[in-house]
Amino acid sequence: MQLFYSTKVNGNIIELEEEETRHLRVLRKNLGDQLEIVDGKGKRYTATLTALHKKASLLSIQSTITS
Fold this sequence. Notes:
Layout: E1 3-5, E2 8-10, E3 13-16, H1 18-26, E4 34-38, E5 43-52, E6 57-66
Parallel strand pairs: 1-4
Antiparallel strand pairs: 2-3, 3-6, 4-5, 5-6
């Protein structure tokens, strides 16, 4: 499973910015896919892709692991 990076974690929602969203499109990810996200602060999230737009995407957090 690929890892993605985002610092935009708000409650139960993660927003991926344009560059990471571009990676999702290249990898042909679809709504409902499970992804692994890291925030650079020691947390790793398993999240479900809920919205995929050209410049951003949204994910719903399913679980959190703290290093």
